Queue: 2 jobs
Job 1
Amino acid sequence: MHYPFKLQPLPYAYDAMEPFIDAKTMEIHHSKHVQTYVDNLNKALETQPDYQNWSLERLLYNLDKLPQSIQAPVRNSGGGVYNHNLYFAIMTPGGKALTDGTLKVAIDRDFGSFDEMLAQLKAAGLSVFGSGWAWLVADSQGKLSIFKSPNQDTQIPANLTPVINLDVWEHAYYLKVQNRRAEYIDNFFNVIDWATAQRNYDKFAQTDFSKA
Ligand code: MN3
């Protein structure tokens, strides 16, 4: 995936996450907010032929090597595209439970239990001041941890494998639950596709964004 970037279609309808995440929020989030990130990323790269064949991951890993004039737009809008592609892919109607496998073993090893991991992810999401993201990530050895990023920053510069990411920008929940971020996080936990999370986790040994 490289310039010109496109809005990745959702593999489900806007109302598919009801009653946990409402259709209007999903529609505006995807068709307006993410579309704007896509458009602004393309606008930044329009006049930069040297970078038009770079993947999104390569752009985000090498932010400090880009021309000064496009560092901020690539960081913000490119990060916005990358983060939301993960976020929407990790949801499925009604959620899908974590089954026995390497991710379950790692969660029990690194957090003590699945519930403790969720509690720490929720606490991280609640503690993001302003807008940002909370993540479940894996290092190159498969060790799991909770990670936070402000604005549309990603886990890519830290070279970590994303397993789950949680959007805590107000645009992800304000229409339905207003200011109640904790309620939104609880709702989001009901639609996580843990089969996809397992597939994300499976990539930890191959993750090296310096080669992206
Ligand atoms: Mn968002």
Note: DSSP finds eight helices and three strands in the chain.
Job 2
Amino acid sequence: MSRLSYKIFGALLLTVLLSVGLTSFAANQLTASQFRQYIIRGNTEFITSVESALGTYYAQYQGWDNVNGVLIQLLGSNGGRLVLSDASGLIVADTQNKWIGYQTDEYSLSNGTLISISGTDAGYLYWIGSQGSGSGSGYGKGMQSGQNNSGNAAAGIISESQQQLLDEMNRSIWLSGGLAGLAALGLGLLLASQIIRPLKALSRSARRIAGGELSQRVKVDSRDELGELAESFNHMAQSLETNEQSRQRLLADIAHELRTPLTVIEGTVDGILDGVFEADAQHLTTIKEESATLTRLIKDLRDISLAESGKLKLEMTQLDIADIIRRQAKQASILAKDKSIALLSDIPANLSTVTGDATRLNQITANLLSNALRHTPAGGQISLSLKNMLYRDKPGIMVSVTDNGEGIPPADLPHIFDRFYRVNTSRARSEGGSGLGLAIVKEMAEAHGGYVWAESLLGKGSTFNYWLPASHT
Ligand code: ADP
């Protein structure tokens, strides 16, 4: 048994013992006192009726002659023993026929119930309880002082069978208390085991997860707080597993990305050293370009890791996004001209200002423009547009880069913002793409409190939009 179950068991046992013990004790006391009162009431009535019968007898026969038979009849099935003395204390009747003719002492006289007829003392009646019967230890035995004269002989007389009944009742109370206690203890232990079982399962799974078994889950079979705990645990395990998988994928992707340019550099250098290639401008340029790819890749990796961990430092200022777009359009126009692509821009007046990091916003725009230029054939068109737009009820500015290039297949569209995702892997790589450009754009836009999304029709072109919240004025 675990320590928690010891504690629950201890607490339950204590509670059950205390509550059952106290309740049974109180019930016992109450039953005993109620029972005694009931008996006393019955006894008082009995003695009063005996007194009145004896009074009638005395009045009728002017004495106690032959009263013994009547007394025996009067006792009937009542417990104990009736003794009658005359006014002087001489015993004239005894339901056990033992003391007739004996003289009572003063003490016993005072314990008897006086029978008086029309103001004349006729005698004393003694009712000796069952405990005293036959013992001869005194008439007063078992008698308690009554509230009135006639109550004297009646008070506290409990016959053997009545005492047995009382004992029986008390035993029943203790027994039912004990049984109720056992039932409560059993139920409590059942409940405790229902709490402890899922907790144990949780701790087992937690240990396995710590040991690297990230696919571990616990069964959720209740809707209470324990069920919620199990569900949260499973969520945590799920996100640990997802994170671990994406970490492994990232490492594999990085290794893969590094290998291609390094292989080219190594192969070219080996060729030059072996005398297969000339150390001429062409081969040195290959080495330089692949080194540049590596440098860009490392820079992109750094950017994305900073952005993903929320550690990207943004130098936020209030700025006019139109300026950035104009500058980027100007730079891209040289390349566009080289590729015979028309670059148009639509920048309206009175645009809201945004708060952002100018370098990063330049980077986002440059990335989108460079992608558009790469995926638009000669004679195509790229347009840059800006407009004030509400996004999810918040005012801001939307920047759109639209091209009429090759477009993106619908199956690829939901993934293009993922790290290292490329639609046409070999072509993208040969064009120097790391597959990180759009992932960086997404992270940067989100770091500004913005969003980025793409729309595309295969063979018709694509539009990449990013939205930034307007500065608070
Ligand atoms: P890369 O640096 O390899 O271009 P990106 O993350 O910038 O990687 O882009 C991911 C993929 O999205 C690219 O492989 C490319 O196929 C596709 N893509 C991006 N921009 C465009 C566009 N304007 N038109 C068509 N496809 C695009």
Note: The chain has three domains: 3-163, 225-308, 317-469.
